[in-house]
Design goal:
Blueprint: E1 4-9, H1 10-24, H2 31-47, E2 51-55, H3 61-66, H4 82-93, E3 99-102, H5 108-116, E4 123-127, E5 143-147, E6 152-153, H6 161-168, H7 183-191, H8 193-202, H9 206-216, E7 227-230, H10 235-244, H11 248-251, H12 255-264
Parallel strand pairs: 1-2, 1-4, 2-3, 4-5
Antiparallel strand pairs: 3-7, 5-6
Helix pairs in contact: 1-2, 2-4, 6-7, 6-9, 7-8
């Protein structure tokens, strides 16, 4: 019988819940928490996993050493109580069969990359709108990357996604690409080692290309340093907390049995 591992990009899904709540639940108390748990159930139902792992962010120490302005262009919104609601989400996850993982010296991407390529899972599904996970498709055919916004599976543009992104750059992470190199040009350069060598020689770009590759590629993570918290299913506590938070549409006689049924398959897997 095949086994499925579901890997969730925690910050990505929480931020998605944050913006969804602003659009659809304006003024509702604990709207981010509500939106997160409303969107979690259909994801679990869709993939019917044997184990669920949600990765949290650590500090990108190595990448900041390589490029001190890594992600330095991001503007962080502090206009709401996202931090407080994030803590409520993490507290509630302890009452579901969800394992939360974090490495203090690595980003969630690196930790997910570790789990995606480890173990004997027949199917490994990564859920995130972050395109960096596409590189995993080059490494293992058992890995799938699902974008919860478009509701589509990602496809790799080539066999060397890390090299492709090193050439085109990534504005969201403040990684500068090469001037005049777009998607098609990058693909053409990667098709021929000689063409890529010639291009990098002409533009004195070896150091930049190598640095960009290291910024994009997932880093090796020491599994012994990963902080792991395994949720323990407690339906009575969870429904009481949902009621306390006013999530009435999730605990009525129709919705709650569906919520419980969705997680039954992963209840006893650690």
């Amino acid at each position: 019988m095949s086994k499925t591992l579901l890997l969730l990009d925690g910050a990505n899904l929480m931020q998605r819940a944050r913006f969804s709540s602003r659009r659809n639940l304006k003024g509702k108390e604990y709207a981010i928490v509500y939106s997160f748990f409303r969107s979690l159930r259909p994801l679990v139902e869709k993939f019917n996993p044997d184990k669920i792992v949600l990765a949290l962010e650590g500090r990108p120490v190595r990448r900041l050493e390589l490029h001190k302005e890594y992600k330095g262009n991001r503007v962080y919104d502090t206009s709401d109580d996202y931090g407080d609601q994030r803590q409520v989400i993490l507290e509630l996850l302890q009452h579901l069969p969800v394992t939360t993982v974090r490495h203090p010296l690595h980003e969630a991407d690196d930790v997910i990359g570790h789990y995606a390529l480890d173990g004997d899972w027949d199917r490994r599904v990564v859920v995130s709108s972050d395109s960096d996970f596409i590189q995993l498709l080059n490494n293992d055919s058992r890995v799938e990357v699902y974008n919860p916004i478009t509701k589509k599976y990602r496809e790799a543009p080539c066999d060397d996604y890390v090299g492709w992104k090193a050439l085109v750059g990534d504005t969201s992470d403040n990684i500068e690409g090469f001037r005049g190199v777009g998607n098609k040009t990058a693909l053409k350069l990667l098709e021929s080692h000689n063409e890529l060598e010639g291009f990098l020689t002409k533009h004195e770009g070896y150091a930049k290309y190598q640095c960009n590759r290291e910024l994009v590629a997932f880093e090796h993570v020491n599994p012994e340093q990963i902080e792991i918290k395994s949720g323990k299913t407690n339906w009575d506590t969870l429904i009481d907390r949902f009621r306390d938070l006013g999530f009435w549409s999730m605990v009525n006689d129709t919705a709650w049995p569906k919520y419980v049924k969705t997680f039954i398959g992963v209840e006893n897997v650690r």
